[in-house]
């Protein structure tokens, strides 16, 4: 006799965690900072695994069999996703052919699709790679390998002892610990299931770790969103609250160096349509943070800060080619009007660009 589908306290709680995870996925994916994309899909992966577990425990998977073979896909995807996020967290370049990290997940996705079509009456008899998702040993090895990669990456970046780096490393450690606990729970299940004292409800341990991960990430998402932007300029993990002001100044200095380095290397100021929001998107900052850093460290507003670079570029052009038309100069360096160029130029040099050029010719 088939048991009627039903929820108990545990499965109801896990279902709430699934809803929380799906909500977090939406929040993180809607963030303008693309560096949070991997962690968003990491949360989605845990949420879908947990959802299938809930469907299995409650017997609802017979009514909704759409995720029956999907968890292995997520198991093989979570490691690369978390590794990708760590590369972003430590501002490391994404290696060429990084997509190859997701090959195991894609291979598991193939039998999932065929089984899905088969179970929905599409008349499919052959399922390629059907046995691959059943080899839990491969899953465990894969999870452990990526846990080690995360530890190595964190260790390589532990030499910087600034408070900014310390906070980043502590956040990385939180994620590593959660991931290792998840792997431990997953491994323990397949070890303990061979003993007579094993209780089927111990399977909940894996789900508890996934739930803990979802809620921990959720806490930091809402308590301090800056942790996901790599900004860390508020009090997270601060060892000494009394040092907050000096800590904030240190963070602002590091962020300002990042801004000036970007301005020098990428030359975004040459874009006539550059706005605060555009530059914030390029740097992965919020507009509020970018404005605050520029105001505090440069002593001027956004337009004044950008115009400094444009004026320096204009000066170089006038020195290299004294015959170049003024109109070409101001447009090529990023000013979108003659009036704005002349106003900024006169404020700095107390003369017009034409007078400046004449002075160069006389010197």
Automatic annotation (TrEMBL):
<protein>
    <submittedName>
        <fullName>AraC family transcriptional regulator</fullName>
    </submittedName>
</protein>
<keyword id="KW-0238">DNA-binding</keyword>
<feature type="domain" description="HTH araC/xylS-type">
    <location>
        <begin position="253"/>
        <end position="359"/>
    </location>
</feature>
<feature type="transmembrane region" description="Helical">
    <location>
        <begin position="134"/>
        <end position="153"/>
    </location>
</feature>
<keyword id="KW-1133">Transmembrane helix</keyword>
<feature type="transmembrane region" description="Helical">
    <location>
        <begin position="63"/>
        <end position="85"/>
    </location>
</feature>
<feature type="transmembrane region" description="Helical">
    <location>
        <begin position="173"/>
        <end position="192"/>
    </location>
</feature>
<dbReference type="GO" id="GO:0003700">
    <property type="term" value="F:DNA-binding transcription factor activity"/>
</dbReference>
<feature type="transmembrane region" description="Helical">
    <location>
        <begin position="12"/>
        <end position="30"/>
    </location>
</feature>
<dbReference type="InterPro" id="IPR018060">
    <property type="entry name" value="HTH_AraC"/>
</dbReference>
<keyword id="KW-0472">Membrane</keyword>
<keyword id="KW-0804">Transcription</keyword>
<dbReference type="Pfam" id="PF12833">
    <property type="entry name" value="HTH_18"/>
</dbReference>
<keyword id="KW-0805">Transcription regulation</keyword>
<feature type="transmembrane region" description="Helical">
    <location>
        <begin position="97"/>
        <end position="114"/>
    </location>
</feature>
<keyword id="KW-0812">Transmembrane</keyword>
<feature type="transmembrane region" description="Helical">
    <location>
        <begin position="37"/>
        <end position="57"/>
    </location>
</feature>
<feature type="transmembrane region" description="Helical">
    <location>
        <begin position="204"/>
        <end position="222"/>
    </location>
</feature>
<dbReference type="GO" id="GO:0043565">
    <property type="term" value="F:sequence-specific DNA binding"/>
</dbReference>
<dbReference type="InterPro" id="IPR009057">
    <property type="entry name" value="Homeodomain-like_sf"/>
</dbReference>
